[in-house]
Amino acid sequence: MPTYPPGSAERKAIDEALVEMKKQMPFEVPCVINGKEIKTGNKLKQLTPDSVNTAPLCEYHAATPELVTEAIEGAVKVQKAWAATSWYDRATIFLKAAALVSGKYRNQLIAATMLGQGKNVWQADIDAIAELADFFKFSVKLVDDGYKNQPLITPDDAVNRIEYRPLEGFVLAVSPFNFTAIGGNLVTVPSILGGVCVWKPSPMATYANYLTHKILLEAGVPGSVIQFVPGDAPQIVDQCLSHRDFAALHFTGSTDVLRSLWTKIGSQMTTYRSYPRIIGETGGKNFHLIHKSADIKATVIHCIRSGFEYCGQKCSALSRLYIPRSLYEAGWLDEFVKQTKEIKVGPVTDHVNFTGPVINEASFDRILKLINQAKEEGGKILAGGSGDKSQGYFVEPTIILTEDPHSLTMKKEVFGPVVTAYVYEDDKWAETCDLIDNTTDYALTGSVFSNDRAALAEASELLRNAAGSLGSGTNDKSGTWAHFSRFVSARTIKENFGADPTDFRHPSNLA
Ligand SMILES: NC(=O)c1ccc[n+]([C@@H]2O[C@H](COP(=O)([O-])OP(=O)(O)OC[C@H]3O[C@@H](n4cnc5c(N)ncnc54)[C@H](O)[C@@H]3O)[C@@H](O)[C@H]2O)c1
Ligand SMILES: N[C@@H](CCC=O)C(=O)O
């Protein structure tokens, strides 16, 4: 990945792309149904969260119920033909999409992700280029490997094979704002297998998602295979979930939303042709557990990057921090606070800013409310604690020290630049692992920092269920065949070519 140092060609190129994009804002984003761009006239806005008083990044046309019906019907109609397209052709399309992401559309995708989702160039590149292109390429490799999972034994008089059929009906992909790549992956996984999708993007990632869709179509995905349907989330999603041909929900976003959609699907089971599948990843409450043997300098840097890059708006962002008393007394927290106060926060177009805005006003207000509640509960604010939304939604990187390991911000997902620290006694390593395991229902990600192998092994054992998506989704891990397997129905086919039978009786039936 390019590193964008001052004076580099890559920094110059991205600066030019940003200037060009700003000149053209607001872009007009249509619905794209059966490959046709459709403007409904019902326009909504995607703002630039770091400069809210300027022109929006885009105005997008919200899909009407009639268009959603057209999208579903168009997708279902093309499904058999797409499934019959050879694996070679499907694979090549996604490899071409990867090349378009890292080549022709590179700077445009980065600029759209920076301006629309408030990422600085480093964060935008790892998301919209590195991860998105990887998703496309890994998908080809993983499906290729998956298709090779065939019966182990082939007898002399028969051939057995397994065919991995895509789901009948359409997949509804509902994507979050915080990763351009995730939207791309949610539609790629079902469609690379020969399935069809209706894609409802996040309102706060509409433009980058529209570009991703454009890339997929340019690479050769037929227009009806992935339908781009922005607009009112509950209206579009409810309509899709109420359709007889609804085959699966592919979701990434918050826990409450997935739970409500799951409940809706469950309550409508008699509507469907089949048993819809639900594949969803949701919130997290990432812990960092520091052992007394850990290096202070390195762990402080890891915690700063994990907690505050992209304003903590990652499901995997550090949120609860466990520091041993000995390192606390050796100045671990002082160093963490000192460096946190050095973080530059501001518009993402100024590269010195390590972090930018949070995504919108609702998020800004929610985060500051949580900080205030933490204060009222007795939490001590060691850094940050406030914000300013006059120009953009800027929240100061915030460190809260708590004496209560079950306090609000140790339990609830904040999804903002807020780290709550708790000091544990060095000799309570196992007890602290149990505490981490039992503090929240989330169990998405976590890290243990130690130079003591025995402590690592013990933590790995005790924290087995505290990370790895358990409790945070259906745990169909991206980057594994297990994820793809949720979007196929296996069919076993046996061809016999042994001698024809001459008697229906077996030897065991003879008198
Ligand atoms: N586990 C992961 O891999 C992962 C990755 C990224 C984000 N996340 C989680 O996503 C959340 C942040 O993303 P977000 O703010 O975009 O999440 P969100 O739940 O607000 O929105 C996700 C999607 O659901 C749609 N949606 C929202 N309300 C809806 C409703 N009532 N009915 C139908 N659709 C609705 C949105 O328009 C969006 O497309 C965090 O909780 C984060 O932890 C998880
Ligand atoms: N791949 C992402 C996960 C996305 C969560 O929001 C990461 O950077 O950890």
Word description of this protein:
With 511 residues, this protein is of the alpha/beta class. The protein has 2 domains: 14-282 and 474-493, Aldehyde Dehydrogenase, Chain A, domain 1 (3-Layer(aba) Sandwich); 286-462, 3-Layer(aba) Sandwich (Aldehyde Dehydrogenase, Chain A, domain 2), CATH 3.40.309.10. The protein has 17 helices and 20 strands. The strands form 6 sheets. A 6-stranded mixed β-sheet has the order 14-17-18-13-12-19, with helices on both faces. Strands 9-8-7-10-11 form a 5-stranded parallel β-sheet, with helices on both faces. The chain is globular. The structure holds nicotinamide-adenine-dinucleotide and 5-oxo-L-norvaline (A1AUG). Nicotinamide-adenine-dinucleotide is lined by residues 174-179, 182, 200, 202-203, 233-234, 237, 252-254, 257, 281-284, 315, 413, 415, 444, 472-473. GO terms for molecular function: L-glutamate gamma-semialdehyde dehydrogenase activity.
Could you give the topology of this structure?
Blueprint: H1 9-24, E1 27-29, E2 31-33, E3 36-38, E4 43-46, E5 58-61, H2 65-84, H3 87-102, H4 106-117, H5 121-147, E6 158-166, E7 170-174, H6 180-192, E8 196-200, H7 206-219, E9 226-228, H8 233-241, E10 246-252, H9 255-267, E11 277-281, E12 286-290, H10 296-308, E13 318-324, H11 325-329, H12 332-341, H13 361-376, E14 380-383, E15 387-388, E16 394-395, E17 398-401, H14 408-411, E18 418-424, H15 429-439, E19 446-449, H16 453-462, H17 481-485, E20 488-496
Parallel strand pairs: 1-5, 7-8, 7-10, 8-9, 10-11, 12-13, 12-19, 13-18, 17-18
Antiparallel strand pairs: 2-3, 4-5, 6-20, 14-17, 15-16
Bound molecules: nicotinamide-adenine-dinucleotide and 5-oxo-L-norvaline.
